[in-house]
Fold these 3 entries.
Entry 1:
Amino acid sequence: MTSAPCAAHDDAPWMLPTTPGPGRGRHLVPRAWVRRSSPSLELSGTWSFRLHPVAAPEGVDDAGRSIEPTFDTEDATLGAWSTIELPAHWVLTGQGKRGLPWYTNVQFPFPLDPPFVPDENPTADHVRTFVLPDGWGLGEEGGLDVLRLDGVESFASVWVNGTWVGTTQGSRLPSELDVTGLLRAGSNEIAIRVSQWSPGSYAEDQDQWWLPGIFREVTLHHRPAGRIDDVYARPDYDPATGTGRLEVEVSGPAAAFPAEVVLPELGVSTTLTGPGLAVLEAGAVEPWSAEIPRLYELDVRATGETVRLRTGFRRIEVVDGQVRVNGQRLILAGVNRHEVGASRGRVFNEEWSRADLALMKAHNVNAIRTSHYAPHPRLLDLADEIGLWVMDECDLETHGFEAVGWQGNPADEPAWREALLDRARRMVERDKNHPSIIFWSLGNESGTGRNLAAMSQWIHERDHQRLVHYEADFAGQYTDVHSRMYPTLEEVAAVVERDPASPAGTGPVALSGIPASRLSPGQAAHVRTLPYVMCEYLHAMGTGPGGAEGYTKQVEPNPRHLGGFVWEWRDHALIDPRPEASGALRYGGDFGEDVHDGNFVCDGLVTADSVPSAGTRAWAASVAPVVATALADDPGAVELRNRFHSRTTQGLALAYQVLAEDSGQAVVTGQVKAPELAAGESTVLRVEGLGEAIERLRREEPQAVVHVQAAVLDPVVAGIPATSPRQVDPVTGAVLLPQIGQSTEDGLRVMNLRETSLAPLVPATTRLSVSEPGARRVSGAVELGQARLDSLGRLVELGGVEIVGPEVCAWRAPTDNDDGHGPVEYWDVAPTPQNMGGGSATGGAWGTPSSADRWREARLHLLRERSCGIEIDDDAVTVRSRAGAPSRQWRLDVTTRFTAERGGLRMRTTIEPSGPLPSVLPRLGIRLGLPAGLEKATWSGTGPAPSYADMDLAARHGVFQGQIEDLWEMQVRPQEGGTHPGLRSLWLTGQDEAGPLRLMVLTHGAPAFSLSAWHLDNLTAANHVEELNKDEHLWLHLDGLHHGIGTRSCGPDTRPQFAATARTVVLDAWIGVQRG
């Protein structure tokens, strides 16, 4: 791609450049983030602020030369001045009057004309006056004054006391400018002009909000003549001897030396007489890992200052394609983490970030990929301290060039070489001392090319310890791991498992039509020798993700499989800054963007409010580092497996719950100390009291399924508070174990809980129904015991309470995965090893019809029902109807038999589908409109959270209780999110205009159920939570079929075994009403 000639803006160095490249001016070489004893001044706080529509509002003089800006805050010629609190994105301040956020995923929000950007380019001036603190060292001979900008999006030009000092590009990377000689005693002024768009924007197309501003700190540092310029600590740990070695590369002027390099805790030191390498033989040390994040202070004591950092001893190596740390295999249970908060965007808050990482640890996350840029440096300090493996990713993504066949892609254009190398250097030099970082990642979705290879070469030369990652290097030409995004299970198996049909490993490694499928046989054989990582998988958009267990089961048996990083950790929804929005959460398009990608920015395991979902817990269960499983063939025995990398099971507890399904018996509980197992060990133990409890319940309830729930409780990693709904004892009402990631009443985190179900000892006897005679017509209606039906046989009242239905239903409010247009779908062709799990995918093309598209085409959401007759005999009413959709020939034949039983009403509904229905349905069942005043639910079935066929690993059987509003997991875009399979009984309490009310539902066949305060039409149509309106009824759905979730919003479709394939269903339920 070549750009048409345009007028250059390079006549003045302070101007927005029209060429790619590193920043201009008085830049210092990148260095590590460390703590220093020398003076510094953080300039966060109130700055003067002025916004312009263009990058150079001053224009040109009579000779056509650009006019250099002045920043007189008393002069309003170019616009009025106001104030802003930095760090900040200006579009999230000013109540929407300073512009608004803009979201795109792949597409650029400006013409693809690199490196030029539009003239319409929001640009803001930021001005701050300050006084240097006492003892600054102003004017010190040999001293250095440094201005550091940790993050500015996307271009900054900087003046100090009226003198221009430099420009920056690379929004999420630091820049340091030499301002020596420009500071003075008394008042000083700094001015920073920031433009939203720059040539660098072409390298920052990272599926996130475009948020301009100075969003990280601006800091002044005085570095004395006897300073340390940089420190590079390279620790090593020998797992065979348990000893550590530390190489410390120290640079600085001659005046800094001699300098002492010290590990105070270990009493080890050496002295350097000049710049060079210090080697410390540390002796016996405790190694660093994500599970035992042991850190040691390192001091470098120069003549003019002391530099401090924390280091951890660990060794990274690849042995036979397997990544090992400290001699042990590494498995990543990771997430992709954008740096984003709902109120302040990418502005860093340490307390909030610490809580964010703690929430990850509570849900068994052990690794983060810093997608798709280096995070705030303190975040990496926290990862070192809390314990997380880190893939540190460079601030680089050029995804929008894919739409033009990667023409002009910066990853391969020579003109961009130095700009991209500069980004790699700034990331590595800043972050090189963090023991948590195991991988450097070159960036994301930028095609491939010579500049990426050059970045990798430079990183390998600078850092011989860590591995280099980049997903689109499919052939492994310049990186160290084979990486994939959103592979099918069959694609994973093709790479990590041995194929007897291809012993040389030269067969295809990917689904036909995607770039990884184009490898030569030799390249395919090579990548099968490399470690394998899923850098993105299980797209967690909306309700979901489904199918986690399929992926996580493939990791342990395959030695080269590293695991992966779920996309992604957190929804990016932002709080609307406009007062009239009343704090509502927003996604793409909500701010009036003319080009955007909707709610694709809301794809996290936790919401923007930090609430984990049922999908989060299902994934957490699948990756849990310690698993306890009750053995079905040996009641009372539990297999305990320690899947930690390095931590033992010391201090863990095993808890059990034993219950007989639908029996009314109390739950038997117990807790014992876990035996100590080293990492990687497993054992089978007999748990005191467990066998006896199982035997007793099976003896007393021989017709019942007995469920044995074994949980691992952790006192080390904190859990989050338990939330409604909760599992309760049906006899005492006492709360039982909370959900995975939550804390028990004793403060122990539920690391994992697995359920083993034991079949009944004898077949269950059929419950006899005793019908009450008396069905009769009254004034055109039908009375049947406590029930009243209208003339067409539709229920309108039970026990004096209005109840509507049953209405047949084959529609659910589409999830984001239902609406997904990913190329891998399984409606017509099942996944097989032969088709690499592609199903009917062709050529990897996006835009194929989604499941919801097909359901809409069939008009399942427009279902209409007509009566086909009503039959009344002495003790029953049989109602027949047929449902269909406008201009469609498929039909649902519905037969409901009503009988009055036990003071209530039994409904047995049979739904028979026929005709050209979609092969997969969203659901098939009935719904009932109940009184809206019902508020609390207690049910026997599965819970506590919603679950689906491919998202049920964290679900368990039991009795559960909670507020009805808590039974639905609401997404920022409303959708299906409240289904609980396996219902046995349901008790609802509340009140209506007549007083307290209790409604009971008993089922045969254990259907799925959900309770929704909103009508399905409203739930389907709403784009935001605030568009939901509580209906006049509470809607109870009972489903004989309910479709799985999948990950087709960006990954593969719901697997066929979890699909709701159209077939006849029977719903059998008894309903009763009580007053008082």
Entry 2:
Amino acid sequence: EEYSNIESSGEDLKLEGSIISLEFAPLTKGIRVSNIPPGTTPDAIKSKFSNPKYGGSKVVDMMLDRNNGLANVYFEKSSVVSELVKNEHIFQKLPLTVIPYYDEFDELQEITTKTTEFCGDYHLEPFIMDYIINHQEIETKFNFKSMKYDNSTFHFTKEFDDSKLAQEFKNELKEFLHSFVKDEVKIPKPVFEKVKEAIGEKKAEFKAEKVDFSFEGHRVTFIGKKEDVTLQKRSTEATIDRISEEAKFETTELVIDDRSKLKFLNFIDYFKNVMIEFTGVKIHGMESLSGKLSLLGTAEKIKDVQLRILQDLMKISEIDVKMSDRQLDFLKRTECQIVNDELKKDDVMLMLRTIIGAVGAKSFQAKIMILKKCDNTEEKRLLYIIHTKTSEKSIRVDEETACFLAKSNKLQEFKREQFDQHLVLIDQELTDPCNIWIVCEKSKMDNAEQELANLTNEKKIGSSIFRPMDPMTVRFLRDHCWGKIKEKERSCKAEGITVLEIDSCSLEVKGTQAGRKDMIVFLEKLAGNVNFKAYPLTEPGMKKQISMEAMNVIISHIENIYKCVIEKDIQPEETHEKTKGDGGASTMNLPYNSMSFISDKDVKLVLGHRIRIIVGDLAQQKVDVIVNTTNQKIDLNANACGRALLKVAGKELLSECQKIGSLKVGDMASTGSAKLNCKRVYHVRASPWDSGKGAQILGTLIKKCLDQMEKDTLRSIAIPAIGTGNLHCPRPEVTKILFDEVTDYFTAHPQSTIEEVHFVAFNGDQATVDAFLDALQELRIKMILSRTRKHGKARIDALQEIKSEILRKETRPVLLFRNKVVPNAGSQSDVTFTEKHDGSLELWLGSRNLTVQIVCGDISKEKTDLIMHVIGQDFSVKGGVAKALIKAGGDSIIQECKALGKPALYSTQYSNAGRLAVRQIAHVIAPSSMKVADLKKCLATFFDDVSTKNIAKVSFSAIGAGAMGFSERQSADLIFDNLSRIAKSKNPALSLIRIVILEKAKFIKFKDATKAYFSSGGATSSDPQPVGACASHFIKSAKSVGGDESISIRIYSDDRGKIDMAWRELRRKICQNIDEKIINNDVVRNFTDRDLEKLLVLERDNDVKINVDKNKGMVTMEGYFADVATVQERIIKILKDVKDNESKVPVYWDSLPTEKKFHKIPLSTSSKEYKDVETAFHKTAPNRIVRIERIQNGEIYGHYNLKRQAMMKKYGSNFADKELMLFHGTSVANIEKINAGGLNRNFAGQHGKI
């Protein structure tokens, strides 16, 4: 500080004539460390000076000079240097010199250290010095500069910086050298060898304590640390005393021949207790397998011990224990330890004795060994302990699971794990592998049983049915994916997976639950890739060829080439079948000739028995017997039928049911009626349908009920649709069985006292009501056809009567399709329907290219490509569909949607489907306040968008008919307007639409709305045309006589390109056999409606398209070449017949006696002839028609026919417009004259103008 001003002035100091410059050294971050011991590592220096305890900190760099014992150490902060320099530092008991280190002033770093060399001599015994040099590494320990041992003197030199440290070292070395000693113990000569042997056995102990020993003469010498030598000396002296004492004893040998008894005595520590009791006696050889014991002691004591042992051997009792082979195996594996640990405290042992059988077979017997006699109570206690420790129990599994566990490694791994970790034995029976046994301590049994149950449940071989929506998918998987399925099956071998084809519609997957789930997912993935396209066989000749046996070979070839399957959907309309044979095929085998309709729902058999259809509540029926369908416990609360009866009957009926107890499948029980309006209640137990197996049981139950009525002399019975509720039996099949069984019963028992059978359909179950009404409709048709068992006119009239009957019942046009009366498509001529057993409705649009399925179910379980729903811009979950999707799919769906922000109105946004089975969800954005126009725009935008994507299968609900408040009809109109448009656009991707409705009531309403939509020709159509009337064929001069577009084929493949290729090849093959013929004949101009009907039959029966041009007198035939030839021959015959009959009366006239000049034939109101006249009349007159009569006057008809032929020759092709129908009004008095002689033009003007 006193030089600070001078320094700042820059002046120099003068000292004795010399000039000295002073300046402050800069702050440094390094130190110089000296006096570092040799062998020190850099890490040791870093550790020393990074320790805050000594003022250190983090070392950033260091340089070590091992040769000179110097190091430069650098830190992050200079303040560390100041702290380290202030402190003293000792390292490995040596002082370190620490000073600041300046790189700029190397001349300041020179450190002069004064070194003192210290020498010393110590006298040590050679053995001790050898021990120290060999064991203590003295040179390294004390870092001598030099050392040597000579003539019992230890010389050394060592350098020190400080003389004080040298004195301290001298004291430390002296203390170290004097801590080692040599000592010896004398050993008496008689026991020297035994003592030497005993000490030798303790060699490891001496080595561990670093004590050396050696024998010289009869002495043992020890060298080592003083305290260690003292300890070993005392131990040796004690050994000498013990061996010397034992040398005074005698040794006697005792042999125990029974090894089991010897083992038992050792187990209970018997010999140890004897040695405690008889002090001074030692027993050797107890553990020897030879059974030879050495008794060491005085003669008197040895004699006493020997006597005691022999007496106790005689006292040992053995008790046989009955145990199973599994328990014996458990004891053998555990060496009886679990049991004996418990028995040992009672001086009891359980032992397994080997028993040799007659043929040398070895077995085991469990025996209790005890050193006393025990009474029955004690024996029972011991047996209880043993059986508690070896409890056994079996779990039974099914045969398939047992076989799988036996083959797989899972059970073996489980057995090893249970035994190794828990001492639990698991054993599968050899004779009956379905039994798996557990043997363990009773306390472990519950847990072991649960573990085994978990394994068997996990590995239980169960069965799952894979039944895709379209049965043809199964066929495709079988024909073209079976290799992949079998490969997957092999990969799932550990799960016991096998895939079997049980029928044409489904596959059975057998295996563990996890394996089945994995395989089902795999099959669903394969099935999801399968698409189909429907191709209608509209060209003549196609239907005939596709149904021929030879075509199967062609189809099979195409299927193999293009890896596809082809379904022949050959299902002609029922109306066509009903015109053939003796009434056509029937789904019900009933005595139609002996039946008649009393009303729409009331049928009477010939002997007076009646069958009635009742739509209402079963519990309100006033009959003698009400049938209740129930379960095993006859629980009236188990199904809707029972609950309805219980509500009216009261608890009295419930009490009677409880008295019955239980009911087997196929049985019937009778009770009183309580408060019901009947005399008895018959309770029946049906079975599930099970692919038709339940049908026989249902038929048997109906017979039992009717037989019981005869016994009870009761006359009327009400039967519900048994099995269609909880058992899910198909309604059409149930109604068929009910009709068949009742009519069969009355046929077999014509004198039955039963008068009425009521089939009751609950008015809230529209599907059941429809099933009964459909059965009645079929019955009505069959009854009409059964009355006419011939072809020709009577047959056609019967068919016309059926059509008229249906038309009278319907307020709109209808189409008969597959046994189901479905509203006709009207202007949508390319729409076909079918209603399935489960009530679902299936439609085909656009020549069957687009399939629409309307089903009752949960939309969140759909497995199509995509689910669509309508939602607001904020993605708030309000509607039932949205809630169901989020609940089943997870919150990730809505989170992804909200990340989209606020999408544009009417746009379609796509998101993941979470846990749902579909691939994605389409969210159609709608305004918060919806109108019909908004919903229409939403749907139109969605369908346009989805048509541009490669999406084949889409599911959605009855859009708008839920929370939005629109009616089912409005929803159906909007949906099918769009679907019809999409179908016509021939979108190559979209092939399946599923409309899924959860609530059954809404489902039924939507189906009705769909039927109404197409019945009215679509929402925009106003001019529906009826189908079923034949007159339309005769309106134009050139018209196809018939045609059936209900036949088509479907081609399935997982490659859409191959579908079209397969169709083109199939069509090419079919067209090779199509031929066309033309007949030109003027007689064609004279064809009547009856002649055209004959061509209709020819066209339909032969799959030939027939076009008739009456103006040109030409008939064109196109179709399968063989059919064309046949039809050509038949038409030539028809032409001949027409020409031959031109002068005769019409063929449809009734054959009557010819005495009268004319006959009046009343026409049936349902006949076509009546309808034609009625229609023509009402075109110009509104009068009510009382009756229409055909006047058959041969003479007048002959005049008419001649005039007609003359006009035909005159006008040629223009004749069709020249012949008109005239309605002439006149007085009653003139009618008979006109009928007899025709109209007389002389009276013109008097009775009317012509």
Entry 3:
Amino acid sequence: MQESMLTIFDNVNQRVVDDLRDQLSAHPKVAIAAASFSIYAFEALKEELENVDELRFIFTSPTFIREKQKKEKREFFIPKLNRERNLYGSEFEIKLRNQLSQKAIAKECAAWIRRKVKFKSNFSDETMLGMFNIINSDKAVHASAGTALPNTKCNFSYTPFNDFTTADLGLAKGNSMMNMVNRIASPMAETYLRKFDELWADDSKFADVTDRVLEYMETVYNENAPEYIYFITLYHIFNEFLEDISEDVLPNENVGFKNSVIWKKLFNFQRDAALACINKLEKYHGCILADSVGLGKTFTALAVIKYYELRNKSVLVLCPKKLNENWITYKANYTNNPIAADRLNYDVFFHSDLTRDKGQTNGMDLERVNWNNYDLLVIDESHNFRNGGNIDEDFDISDDMVEDGEKRKENRYQRLMNRIIRGGAMTKVLMLSATPVNNRFNDLKNQLQLAYEGHSEDFNSLLGEGKNIDDIFKNAQKAYNHWAKLPPKERTTERLQDELSFDFFELLDDVTIARSRSHIVKYYDTQDIGNFPTRLSPISRRPKLTDLNTNESLNFTDIAEMLNQLNLAIYTPSYYIYESKRGNYDLKVGGTNGLSIDGREKGIRNLMATNLLKRLESSVNSFRLTLQRIETRIKETIEKINEFEEKSLNSIAMAAEDKKRSIASTSEKQGDHTTSFSLSHFTEDLGNNDESDFASFIGKNNSIQLSDLDFRRWRRALKEDLETLRLLLLMLKDITPEHDSKLQTLIADLKEKFAHPINPGNKKILIFTAFADTAEYLYAQLADRIKADTGMNVALITGNTEGKCTIQKFPMSFNNILTYFSPISKDKAHLPHPLDEDIDVLIATDCISEGQNLQDCDYLINYDIHWNPVRIIQRFGRIDRIGSKNQVIQLVNYWPDMELDQYIELKGRVECRMKATVLTSTGNENILESATESEKDDLEYRKTQLQKLQHEVVDIEDMDTGINIMDLGLNEFRLDLLAYIKDNPDVEHAPCGMDAVVAHSPMAKPGVIYILRNRSNEVNIDRKNLLHPFYMVYIAEDGEVICDHLHPKKLLDTMRHLCRGKDAPDKSLYGLLNQETQDGRKMDKYSDLLHQAIESIIDVKEESDIDSLFSVGETSALRGEIKGLNDFELITFLVVK
């Protein structure tokens, strides 16, 4: 037979693989030099390769060489890594890999290698030619004429032969325009063979890597630990994070913060949060820690503070005044400070201190504080700063004079930005809030811009090329507004997530940390911590106002309707300014430097209108006291008006003199004719409202001259209110404590709890009310009675007093009351000379509704329902905490004696009526229209949430009808990977397509979680997939998609829950899988499920394309195309049995 000396294969019509099958049939020896080796090339020639006597293989570039020095630079390392990964299938063999048969193929290939193959690798910098040599063929060719001669050896060399893959064999299409291979026969082939032998023998440039190849190959067919597959998944998804990470933005463990007392006290989920906070503070200069109520944000923040103090950084804590004792205790050298040994040294100021220039806080003189010298600022309850101000204008803090010689007035947000953050040291900002977002994404933006000093261009550079934080929030708000107008049935969280952009989710992931109670329970091992107590169904009480039958109309509804008749003119003198005099006053609704006189007065009146309704709901006593205060104020004002009128009639000169007197001056002068109406006078009337409720109305003390008022018309309105108030007080006169039905219902509930504790021996009760008046009333009626009847102690704590307690010689203080009420959680045992008695019943206002751990108690009563549903949850969060010793906890809510719909509607009418005069004073109908629309939305929202609270105790994140940022954060997975990679650097060599088997659980039904990589950047068309180009799909055994690729946080959480801590394969589960698949040879079921998983991704995209055709903006239907299986590469998969 005559063979051609040179034969050319185009690998299309004439394929190398077909010729090799012929040439390898007669037990030859084989010598290959190529860049990579693929098990799928072995599979294609398996029968023929079994016939060879031996096979020598040289990797033409450094491959499978163990690292002796620091890893090469990325540009050199990545090609080497890719060559090694080709062992499990090249990028052109994805279709084969997705058949899931690689485990069986790798096992057979490894057995063949052990019998017949040796591998060497070039470890020099020199390059070499790829070739495939066949030696000792039983065919022969004449050396010169090409005629066959008997008993003459004929060898062949195929070149160029770049890779031993199915693409180079002609079985798959590679990325070359031409894939031509020359077959050279003897005697020319001997030249290649001699060169191969020469290189094979050169130990100075080539090393044996056979064991290394087998080691890598074994990873393909070995049974894997679930935890290993979890980290392989994280490595692929977050590999870019590892490449981009700088030591500068990671917590420096050398400072010793992990040896601190506070670090050792943290639970595992708190440690994760602390590390993530430090990472974000270093990278972005700011972070919002938005963990849910009861998850210990304060302790997490203390660990972050300790880290920075160990680095000699100066720290400032800004908190609401009611949380001061908390923060002071943790830095004080007190015996009951559980972390006293850490010697924390931060400063503590109040949010309200930002509106003061003088005075003292915690012993520090505000005039002398060097505000711009703090390296770390921790803002507790940062949502109080979600209403920003104009911080773009240049503001010289040393010269803040404006027109008329008056100093410009900064609001607290502006002062925080200008005096602390922008001045002096580069300040990092850690914000703590369970509710950083209300209904406006601007709330979040205003808090975030504290981190970047209001200079968005600086933050844009950190976000990445082409991203603009202002545009991101603008588009997010636009999407939210569109979503808010949808019909209620369509207004779902999923729909909002579809509306929002990928950039917005990515931004939240970058700068926020948010975990819910259910998240911690599901995804963390809480065995050492303990669980949350079980919530019993809430008890709802609706007591009447009184048991008196003398007047059937004496009920909540009728009294509330009477309130609707009030003008509350006492709070709006500016409404009665003569038209000719209005130009003398700033009566605009708002201004750059805070609210005008007009705006302040209307704001205060609106608050008072709502406040009266709330006080009626709280207690008859509180309502009566408020009516009496307003009655007294009106009487005094009428008297002043009468005096002014009398003097005006008697003397023109006196009238001219009195004209200079103010109806709203800053102090009430005895003996003259001036009446005081500064905001400080109204705080008593307003009661215990949130600082943020009336902080907006604090400004410079404007004054209105009485002679500029139509005081007669004002007096008539005041007298009308006075008559209504007198009638109301008359109606309430006979409701004594004995006839106060709400109080009597409370007494009955207390007796029941004392007699039948819900946890053995625990009789503690926490009673919340919104008003100090009500709290004082309850203490007066209950304390001595409970002490006398049961011997148990009662205490009172409000924001206005040190407190009260029935324990004799009690060391009265805010902190001591809380410690004696919850002695275990507050470490009472560490107090010097603690008293033997404890406090069993605590009556409190919302001064302790945040930041306090009172979990010794198991029974909480809301004596009145705070209008903000979030506050109700925050109150319950004092006892509903992880690690509680109580098995169950109980919430009791006291509702008004009327239907919720009626109550909501009533409150809305009261508020809207108070807004009505805005039309008259401004002539701007849009103000009323927009306010009314906003109020309707707000009332509907609150109605929905309050309805929920009548039947179940819910978490804050479950209250939201909008976006929940707790579904988004991925940082903990990045930090998981970072910790793992330090001890397991070889994870980068792991093959794609590996699997593990885990048992199903209540939160994970049987099925498969596939992790895929898309090979085209065009797939993330709508920028919805936060993991792009990686996609995760959880599919049930019947093909139902349990969770699609648009919920990566949920999928990663599930995977973490199923895999973490399982560092060995489950032999029994693998036994079932191997039996089902015949040791990986029959993977049809899982390959079909993979197809269905990919189809689900395509279906979601096609649905999105169709939706985009009918939406504003560019359609996605004309951009990008996903064809199917070949577009996706399988990274790992987790079988849930």
